[in-house]
Design a protein that fits this description.
three-stranded antiparallel beta sheet, binds zinc ion, 20 helices, about 20% strand, eight-stranded parallel beta barrel, alpha/beta
Length: about 525
């Protein structure tokens, strides 16, 4: 039997951006949208053009994703025509494949919040859908507070949804905006809506205020809805949105859904899920949730004992699904064999051939384990992992040494008599028998050190001349009794390629220095610079 298509809509960059403490830059948004695109998500909602400069810039040019890149905004304001509403005009001008409008679906909100009539709200929905269709956009309508609205006035709530559908909206999305609806209610109400609007035009947008956003999403699908909206890691206002990182593998791996539905995420894309989930956390400078379903570090961890030995015989004995399917790994603390095969997989991924019986592979595993216990996280820093692997396997030339570096931070009066903090660094680099000395001033000690280090690398200068640091993230970790600092540095070269390197130390300058050095050496290796 042919499987039905079920669509995924990600709103990490719009609803997720409303999370306390989350503030995406344009570069963040582009990187996250690219990652969602790589995962095979059908729709990526980028933001609200016209509402803030970042989102306006995001939709200012054609982004060329495979996903249906979607702009979010309000339907026309009551009492205005569609052609005389600047907010709507900005939305229609946005370079987006689709427009997702939000509109009231609860008559109480129409009267109290919008201060207009039920009929004017319906007209606003119809006019806005019509205007976006005329611009050639695919149209979605988010029906705000749909479930509460339905409970108060089912007829009117359905009329709002139907107004958009009848006008040609591809999707009508039922939003549980305050997140208080329970799965049995979602099932009943979505079932009723699907009698008025075909389910393959109905979506669900659930919030997690009773920790049932994922369950509510599945309840809606069981009742006929065919689009699920959610966010990576369940990011979102208050308690968050439905977590796509839990929803996707359940749809792919559990027979109830896998047998019936097809989604845009392939098996190969599913393998990238753990990495994507962790990459978002790294970008937000948060520690990933170790206990997250499917992707958490502990999701497939088993303590030694009878469980571990049973798992070694047959993993299915204690696991509900295979960790490899979502790109996670089994952790039986810690078998040499399992560790080695993880390392071999990683080496293969970065294009290094190694024999499983090569003693250097075992040595590399030991080093990685040792370093991870003191705070290194190689999953987040693949360039540093690659260097470590190449060094252990003996293929990284010794390009240069640092003879000495010196960083000073001083507060002093400037020419205008103002107190300013000045950071300076000097670095001595030894290349062969030559010693090169550079000095730089920077915005803070790490910046000064970076500038001095990259100022003069002699014959290697041409390889790093257009190297840029694009991100610098610091996290304090508590390992044992002392706090250590972990620094992640993201670099970019002239070809637009990005890589991440890591440094760990009790001293932030030292940690930063390690990450800077790795970044430079990685670039030299990548460029094939001669020793
Ligand atoms: Zn929402």
């Amino acid at each position: 039997m042919a499987r039905e298509r079920l669509y995924l809509f990600d709103t990490t960059l719009r609803d997720g951006a409303q999370t306390n403490g989350v503030d995406f830059t344009l570069a963040d948004k582009l990187a996250i949208a690219g990652m969602l695109d790589d995962l095979g998500i059908d729709y990526v909602e980028g933001g609200y053009p016209g509402a803030n400069p970042t989102d306006t810039e995001l939709f200012g040019e054609d982004r060329k994703f495979d996903t249906t890149f979607t702009a979010f905004g309000m339907t026309r304001r009551p009492g205005r025509s569609a052609s005389n509403d600047p907010g709507l005009a900005a939305l229609l001008e946005a370079k987006a494949d689709a427009i997702c409008f939000v509109a009231k679906a609860w008559d109480y909100h129409v009267r109290v919040a919008l201060e207009t009539t039920d009929e004017e709200n319906l007209a606003s929905i119809r006019d806005s859908v019509k205007a976006a269709k005329a611009k050639g956009r695919e149209v979605l309508l988010d029906c705000e507070h749909f479930f509460d609205g339905y409970k108060a006035n089912p007829k009117y709530a359905i009329e709002c949804a139907k107004a958009a559908y009848d006008e040609g909206a591809r999707w009508v999305v039922l939003c549980d905006t305050n997140g208080g609806t329970l799965p049995h209610e979602v099932k009943e109400i979505v079932g009723a809506v699907c009698k008025a609007i075909p389910g393959d035009h109905v979506g669900i947008h659930a919030h997690n205020d009773t920790e049932q956003a994922v369950a509510n999403s599945f309840a809606a699908v069981r009742a006929g809805a065919r689009q699920i909206q959610g966010t990576l890691n369940g990011l979102g206002e208050r308690c968050g949105n439905a977590n796509l990182v839990s929803i996707i593998p359940t749809l792919k791996l559990k027979p109830e859904f896998a047998g019936k539905f097809e989604i845009g995420v392939t098996d190969a894309q599913l393998h990238k899920l753990t990495l994507a989930s962790h990459a978002l956390d790294e970008r937000l400078n948060r520690a990933p949730n170790r206990h997250a379903p499917y992707v958490g570090e502990s999701a497939f961890a088993t303590k030694a004992g009878i469980h571990a030995s049973a798992i070694m015989k047959d993993p299915a004995t204690y696991e509900h699904t295979a960790p490899e399917a979502v790109g996670n790994r089994r952790k039986v603390l810690v078998s040499e064999q399992a560790g080695k095969s993880n390392i071999l997989t990683e080496l293969e991924r970065i294009g290094i051939k190694a024999d499983k019986d090569d003693p250097r592979v075992g040595r590399l595993l030991e080093i990685v384990k040792e370093r991870e216990t003191i705070g290194y996280a190689y999953e987040a820093a693949d360039a540093s992992f690659e260097l470590l692997a190449r060094r252990t396997l003996g293929t990284v030339p010794n390009y240069f040494d640092i003879a000495q570096f010196d960083v000073t931070v001083a507060q002093q009066a400037n020419a205008d008599g103002k107190r300013v903090t000045v950071s300076k660094a000097t670095v001595q680099v030894r290349i062969g028998s030559e010693i090169l000395s550079s000095e730089a001033e920077g915005d803070g000690p790490v910046n000064a050190l970076d500038l001095a280090l990259r100022k003069d690398l002699g014959k290697y200068q041409k390889y790093i001349a257009r190297l840029k640091l694009t991100d610098y993230r610091v996290r304090i970790l508590n390992s044992g009794t002392e706090a250590v600092t972990r620094v992640l540095i993201e670099s970019e070269d002239e070809a637009g390629e990005n890589w991440i390197t890591i440094g760990v130390s009790t001293n932030i300058i030292d940690a930063s220095f390690q990450a800077l050095m790795d970044s430079i050496i990685y670039k030299l290796v990548k460029s094939g610079a001669p020793a």
